[in-house]
Amino acid sequence: MAINTGVAPHTAFINGIPIEHGSVTQNCNKKSSTFSAAVPKNYPGAESLLGGGSASIFVSCVAGAGELISGMLDTVDIDFIGTYIRVTGRDLSGQLHQTKISQKWQNVPGSQIVQQVVGMAGLGASTNSIGLMAGKKVQQDFVKLADNIPISYLINELAEFDGAKWWVNNGIFNYATLGTIQGVYTINYDPGPPIVSDATRLNVRHNVQIGGSVNVKSWNPRDKKTYTGTSNASGPGKGNSTYHVPNLDQAHAQQHAKARSAEMSRHEWNVVATVVGDPSINAGMGLQLVGTGVADNIYEIDNIVHEFGMSGYTISITAKSMGSSGGGG
């Protein structure tokens, strides 16, 4: 058996201070990305981290160089015996959890609301244009209310309806429908013998229960009608799921069904891979497998964990099926 192993030399820095060991978790599943790092306490400038504030982590290796994350420090721990400082933090979306909002929107799509509220937190935004209006229909207007809730809560609520995900990359907040990817990273596999792979670990799980019909039923008291949205989740399963959501019209019931089936479809295939470190791999990309036969496909990356230190620089990738759904009535 011959599987590519080992890691190339690399350097990692936080605010220009060398990192002894650390990690960055880049999320593309409606969660803030996070980081941790340990630096030598006695290195010139290291104590500047004690004041908190902003931070960025930069890695350089034979595959390239780049910033993995920028954000704000959450905690700073000092080890006076071990003589190092350990910090943790989150990307810039952390501000969305801390900032609360009370506002009303009329006849505005959720993607436009997201772009507006992200700007309130000082972030630039890139959003897919999603057509349906957000909120409930009051007389002839669609009204969306936010009453003293964190911006992140509002965005997650809109994403659930739109069938969307969000992540931060290079300081930009991205909001896009499931199945949207920005670039593809490929892992090649040759069963041999001998086995040769770009990955030191490659596990694929197939959930054979995923699939079937998704139905959303809604009683609309204004119209005095029950509206039903139907969509089909991809996969070999033959299940039938029904959800009850009040006060929807036909278009919104159908959108709820489409979003729920797309989220369900994502869980049919799950890929976990570990590869040699490469700072160009980031959240928002797709993961392509080549050479496995049964699992050759492009998957949607959920999260990437960069780990660096004395043991080298490696990346663990978790990806799922591309979010998709079938048609419905």
List the helices and strands and how they pair.
Elements (H helix, E strand, L loop, with lengths): L9 E5 L2 E2 L2 E7 L6 E7 L13 E8 L2 E16 L4 E8 L2 H5 L1 E7 L3 H11 L3 E4 L8 E3 L2 E10 H12 L1 E6 L2 E6 L6 E7 L5 E2 L1 E8 L5 E9 L4 E9 L5 E6 L5 H16 L3 E8 L9 E5 L7 E12 L2 E9 L9
Parallel strand pairs: 9-13, 14-21, 17-19
Antiparallel strand pairs: 1-2, 1-5, 3-4, 3-22, 4-7, 5-6, 6-7, 8-11, 10-11, 12-13, 14-15, 16-20, 17-18, 20-23, 21-22, 22-23
Helix pairs in contact: 2-3
Provide an overview of this structure.
The structure is a single chain. By secondary structure, the chain is mostly beta strands. Among the domains are: 95-177, Baseplate protein-like domains (Phage tail protein beta-alpha-beta fold, 3-Layer(bab) Sandwich), CATH 3.55.50; 212-265. The chain has 4 helices and 23 strands. Strand 22 and strand 23 (312-320) form a beta hairpin. Helix 2 packs antiparallel against helix 3. The longest helix is centred in the C-terminal third of the chain and has 16 residues, at 250-265. Residues 1-6 and 325-329 have low confidence and may be disordered.
Number of extended strands: 23
Fourth-level CATH superfamily of the domain at 95-177 = Baseplate protein-like domains
Low-confidence stretches: 1-6, 325-329
- Overall, the morphology is flat
Rg (C-alpha, Å): 22 Å
Distance between the termini: 52 Å
Helix content: 10-25%
Number of helices: 4
Any idea of the CATH class of the domain at 95-177? Alpha Beta
Report the sheet-strand fraction.
over 45%
CATH architecture of the domain at 95-177: 3-Layer(bab) Sandwich
Q: Which class best fits the helix and strand makeup?
A: mainly beta
The H-and-E topology, N to C, reads as EEEEEEEHEHEEEHEEEEEEEEHEEEE
The pLDDT mean sits at 91
Main beta-sheet annotation:
14 strands, mixed
